[in-house]
Description:
Order of helices and strands: HEHHHEHHHHHHHHEHHHEHH
Largest sheet: 2 strands, parallel
Number of helices: 17
Strand content: 5-15%
Radius of gyration: 25 Å
Strand order of the largest sheet: 1-2
Helix content: 40-55%
Structural class: mainly alpha
Amino acid sequence: MLESSLIDSSEHYSHEDPGINAEEIVACFDILGYDQIIVIGTYRRYADWIGSAYHEHMKLSLYKYGHPMATETCPTIWKYLWNFHVRKKNYNGRRGWYRNLDITLTNARKNGPSRTEIKVLNYFQLPNESFYNTITTELYCDALGMELTPNTCNYSRQRELERGRGGVNKGSQGNVVYEHIVKTALKLELISPTTEEKARFECDLDGDFWCESKHKCMAKDTKSKTKRKCRKRNIIQDERTQNSNMTDMSTINTWQKLAQYHTETLGMNWKQNLPLLCPPREELEVLLNKSLAFEELILPEFYNTPLGKDEHIRLFWDNWVKQKKTYCWVDTDRLFQDATSWVQILHDRMVINTW
């Protein structure tokens, strides 16, 4: 047996892929001869998790969807959640190979050695006191505990107390909102992609890459090809510099620039200052009931405490639905209704306080 303890963590252990799922990893630790094997699953409330999963997926796909030359648009959040999550009978991810705790932990318990201990890390459902201030401190101070990781627990707890509560992933919900607006403007031909954006997109279609700098290109391409790419890039960027006297409004033609303009320049945000569409209450109740059922399945004792079912319901309606507007999306039809120019959208529509 190894003299040192090992901690291995990865969300890929929820996958069905051979060799990287929880059951296979437990078997590997068993071969090493450890007296104690602990499998810890991180629980996050289902209704909260799938919203975050959508934003994470869209964040990874924004180059595909959000590029000015792309023809596809990010699906709206509720269409995505309803089709890939809410209507399904299981609690898995968008794709069937991503399994949730009800399957992962059951398989680890069933297929692991008899000394395997199964625990659940309750992700941010507990009060922010003692060690419950980040997922890191919850892991080392509670799930593993002071008997196994006392020094790491004390260090992480002190560090997080000095930094303030952390670990909250803001995701990319606003990014998708602004991507929808820009893509609508492109479809209506109120804006058009720049020469550089077209060139970058053509590179992608050809299976090539855009030459950001001579140094980066030289690492991947021949000297002659690098020289040709740099010359093309310089011509395009010189053209952009020559046209830099264009109005600021005409340069706000990507979701990144639009988000910066709306939030930083105007000091507004999409939740309060854009027209939104939200799911009907009866569909939201389907999601809430599924989320409650999952919590009762994974954490039955916690579910029956004051922080369980009742707090779950309160958070869903007051926080995720009302405050964060987690399941809402921008009403582009209303935002662009009768608009004749991009400047009109930016000057007149994006500055409206209340729709």
